[in-house]
Design goal:
The complex is a heterodimer of chains A (740) and B (159). Chain A has 740 residues and is an alpha+beta fold. In chain A, 29% of the residues lie in helices and 25% in strands. The chains are: A alpha+beta (740), B alpha+beta (159).
């Protein structure tokens, strides 16, 4: 489910003190009487219980508090996930407001500090914010509503059945009398939370499923949103760090004479930060302004020690992967039937190799972090995807107590996986400790783009055959490339990478009679990390290109061919959704009535529990070059909150996929990343972006991911469309549209 | 170091700065307005766009000494209450995701609409292609510019 196995078991043992009323007030900013509810997860319990904070405090149980209503009726929600554009700021309150029966504008959101003991895993990754917590959030809102209703009924001395909640009030049905929520919180806060509450059916929703405007948007149109780089502390200094451009390299010596002569420069020091099992070494220049720190850094003279590890180039890395994918034994993850025999016996068999590049995340906000280490305490502010991880890692690496580390999240100017990593807060803490002052470490764009971790490049070899009935008989994928779980020396090369199947729609495992998936890990100093949709972002190109090639080999329509493999003899409801998605995609894209002068390509992938199908239409411009005319996307993310956010995320995923397909790639030469800024790592621009039409399936399935699953199908749908138009099969990314 | 007077959003600020310091860092670190963003430092992404006498420029690539006493407008000067039609259109079309590039996008769109009241798709491409949005909000930016254009012409006809 999550991109790394360790997410599921994120450390809950570092139990902090119980959340007290005082702590709760401190985080929520609420003063005076209030109804405050939290989620309590009893040991060994399957379901979280909702408890009243006042009562829980006395019994000393641990809460992850999420909601509070004060005497003015204002609702405060503590958002436990970071906001990096994906809309958790909107989605979480929209869920609460629905069951609580309040206007969304009355809901105030504050970011939680990092604490996985309180909030559960806070990593904003795996598109998990809504799908991981929506049932708890619905229950939380409904519980507060029921307690307020009960308090009103008691005040009126009537039965609770005579009362209902609406728009921040409890109303007595028989008389029409009303209490404002704020008038009820003092009484409600003395009640036990009900053990069970009725939740609305989707057809009763008034707020959920509506395209309500995001509350963070007005802050982002007038410059008021505070991102990491915008946060300032009194007395804060600014640091710029020259890090060894080779990933495992060290600092041998440095001369800081000229750097120290730059006006405003206060300190120059050697620093180390953890990047997986390695230390990344560099020299930090600390000054009284960003500019002075950058100028001082330019004046540094550093001698690097680059001995003892490989200085790889892109050609070497891909040379190794191309060799491995053909001849290395590989670690088998998933297999069914007898692939070798079925493939050998077949008369209609094909094989193909696909290559995907290394990529930089390149969030628009370059990495940055503020640390303030005072004595045995450390406080962090920054654009952080995983505050709880940062907190426990800082505690471990800086040898501090967990409770003495505070991690504050700002808005993130993009994240895409990179800001879930722990190196940049660690480095800021090291510098702050050394200079005994709060410091903001600012990564330049060049730092951000060259230091990694990167999306790993991959080489896939696919083999398969089709039966005389035109269905897939055998299917094999071998993936050569870095396993994100095996970084650093001592990696166990014999363990398989289970992510080799990510992106593959689940019904295929039932309908394909013979298959085998395996991987051959590549070991290199290049650090790699999740990149939006993680392995699906590259796997899908191999799977969906090869399915297309098999469909052509079978003489079948590519969309029909996929749909045939969604067939399940048992017709269980969770398989019908795949079929319905294919039908919808066929209908909205006009697949059956497509013209002769256009190329149409389809791809359907599954990622983080959501299924997305896309059709891309391409044609030739008057100058003979291929252009993308339109993309149709159908998203089945099951239960969802805000259709406009879902659409926005799919649109954005398609544009990000477009860049990785046709405009940018990170190369390596002599152990260093080559592309350093947007002049060589070219981004898609407004004039490169085709028309995008997004449709959302409505069904009773559980919530799936929204922020990432729209990305994987785009590229194979595009290259399949190009094949349809030109007969040219693209098997290596990125490629230049104008050179097709 | 030099003492330089900056006129930002109709207010005067006297700053003590290295004359070579880019306007971007002077606005952010010395004037203290953080709506203008650092994205690339080499005029490739547009996140740092401000208006210099009404014309959009990349503040990361303009030395502060070159703009002393000149009229500078940042996102905060477009309006702080989102009352400008371009801001309203951005909200109506729900353009921002992470939002980091949007100050620069809005500065570019405002300048475009001042020059060309009803821009074509080609006008929009030309004016906006210097601005990177990693979240991929381009389709909505295009829509919002057209919405802003309509809002502005409504306003003009009311007057």
């Amino acid at each position: 489910m999550f991109p790394f196995g360790l997410l599921e078991t994120s450390n809950n043992n570092q139990m902090t003190k119980n959340i007290t009323r005082r702590n709760f007030i401190k985080i929520s900013g609420i003063t005076g009487a209030a109804l405050s509810l939290g989620v309590y997860l009893p040991a060994n319990a399957k379901d979280a219980e909702i408890v009243n904070v006042d009562i829980a405090e006395k019994s000393g149980i641990d809460l992850n508090a999420w909601i509070s209503i004060d005497t003015s009726g204002k609702v405060t929600i503590i958002n436990h996930r970071s906001e990096m554009g994906q809309g958790s700021w909107q989605a979480v309150p929209q869920i609460i407001a629905e069951e609580l029966e309040v206007d969304l504008n009355k809901v105030n959101i504050v970011f939680a500090e990092g604490n996985n003991a309180k909030y559960g895993s806070q990593i904003t990754g795996g598109s998990s914010t809504v799908r991981g917590s929506y049932s708890k959030l619905l229950k939380l809102g409904a519980t507060a509503r029921e307690m307020l209703t009960e308090a009103a009924a008691k005040k009126w001395n009537v039965s609770k059945a005579d009362c209902y909640a609406e728009d921040g009030h409890v109303i007595q049905k028989s008389t029409g009398k009303k209490f404002h929520y704020g008038e009820l919180v003092a009484d409600a806060s003395k009640l036990e939370a009900p053990k069970t509450v009725r939740l609305k059916m989707p057809e009763e929703y008034k707020i959920i499923r509506k395209p309500l405007q995001r509350q963070d948007v007005p802050l982002k149109t007038n410059g008021k949103a505070i991102f990491g780089l915008d946060k300032k502390l009194p007395g804060m200094l600014f640091a710029s760090v020259e890090r060894n451009p080779r990933f495992w390299g060290k600092v041998k010596s440095f001369d800081d004479t000229a750097a120290k002569a730059v006006p405003g420069v206060k300190h120059v020091l050697a620093v180390k930060m953890k990047v997986f099992s390695q230390d990344r070494e560099g020299v930090a220049v600390v000054a009284d302004s960003t500019w002075a720190a950058m100028q001082g850094r330019k004046a540094l003279k550093i001698v690097w020690d680059d001995s003892g590890f490989d200085h790889h180039s892109t050609d070497q890395l891909y040379g190794a992967m191309r060799k491995d994918v053909k001849s290395a034994k590989g670690n088998v993850f998933r297999t069914k039937g007898d692939f070798d025999t079925a493939y050998q016996k077949s008369t209609k068999k094909i094989e193909a190799t696909y290559e995907t590049p290394y990529q930089s995340h390149s969030s628009m906000e370059p990495l940055n972090c503020i640390a303030d280490v005072k004595g045995n305490k450390c406080e962090i502010w920054g654009p952080i995807q995983a505050p709880d991880w940062v907190r426990s890692d800082i505690a471990r690496l800086m040898e501090l107590k967990f409770e003495d580390v505070t991690v504050n999240m700002t808005f993130l100017g993009g994240g895409f996986g990179r800001k879930a990593f722990l190196d940049y807060p660690h480095e800021a803490a090291v510098i702050s400790k050394a200079i005994s002052a709060p410091v903001q470490v600012i990564w330049t764009r060049e730092d951000d783009m060259t230091q990694g971790p990167f999306r790993p490049g991959m080489v896939y070899q696919c083999k398969g055959s089709v039966s005389e009935h035109g269905g897939i008989q055998s299917f094999e994928t071998r993936m050569a490339g870095q396993n994100m779980d095996q970084q650093g020396p001592g990696a166990d090369k014999d363990s398989y990478n289970g992510n080799v199947v990510e992106g593959f729609p689940e019904p295929y495992f039932n309908t394909l009679p013979h298959y085998r998936f395996s991987d051959i890990p590549l070991i290199t100093p290049v650090p790699v990390m999740w990149w939006r949709s993680v392995y699906s972002s590259t796997n899908a190109f191999a799977f969906e290109s090869f399915l297309d090639e098999l469909a052509i080999a079978a003489g079948k329509d590519p969309l029909e061919f996929r749909r045939n493999h969604f067939m399940d003899p048992t017709w269980s409801p969770d398989k019908i959704r795949y079929h319905e998605l294919a039908n919808k995609l066929e209908e909205v894209s006009g697949w059956k009535s497509r013209g002769k002068n256009a190329g149409f390509g389809v791809a359907i992938t599954e990622c983080f529990s959501s299924i997305v199908g896309q059709v891309v239409k391409v044609s030739k411009s008057t100058d003979g070059k291929v252009k993308i005319d339109k993309v149709w996307a159908v998203m089945d993310c099951g239960w969802f909150v805000n259709p406009d956010i879902v659409r926005a995320q799919v649109e954005g995923s398609i544009v990000m996929a477009l860049g990785a397909a046709v405009t940018h790639e990170t190369h390596f030469a002599d152990g260093k990343a080559v592309e350093q800024n947007f002049n060589t790592y070219k981004m898609p621009r407004i004039n490169d972006t085709p028309e995008i039409e997004v449709h959302i399936m409505e069904n009773d399935e559980k919530a799936g991911g929204v922020g990432e699953p729209g990305l994987p199908p785009f590229t194979p749908a595009l290259t399949n469309a190009i094949f349809d138009l030109t007969g040219k099969r693209i098997r290596k990314l990125p490629f230049k549209l104008e050179e097709v | 170091m030099a003492t330089i007077t900056l006129k930002v959003n109709n207010k005067s600020y006297t700053v003590d700065a290295d004359p070579k310091m880019p306007l971007l860092w002077a606005i952010r670190d010395l004037v203290g307005l953080t709506g203008t963003k650092y994205g690339c430092g080499i005029a490739q992404c547009g996140a740092c766009t401000v208006h210099l006498a009404g014309v959009p420029v990349r503040s990361c690539s303009v030395p502060v000494s070159a703009v002393a006493n000149k009229e500078i407008t940042t996102i905060e000067g477009i309006s702080s209450d989102n009352s400008h039609p371009v801001q309203q259109a951005w909200i109506q079309e729900q353009v921002p995701q992470c939002g980091y590039c949007q100050s620069g996008q809005i500065m570019a769109a405002t300048a475009l609409l001042k020059k060309t009241a009803s821009p074509t798709d080609k006008d929009i491409d030309t004016a906006m292609q210097g601005h990177i949005c990693r979240c991929g909000t381009y389709p909505r930016i295009r829509k919002a510019i057209k919405t802003a254009s309509a809002l502005m012409s409504q306003k003009a006809s009311v007057k």
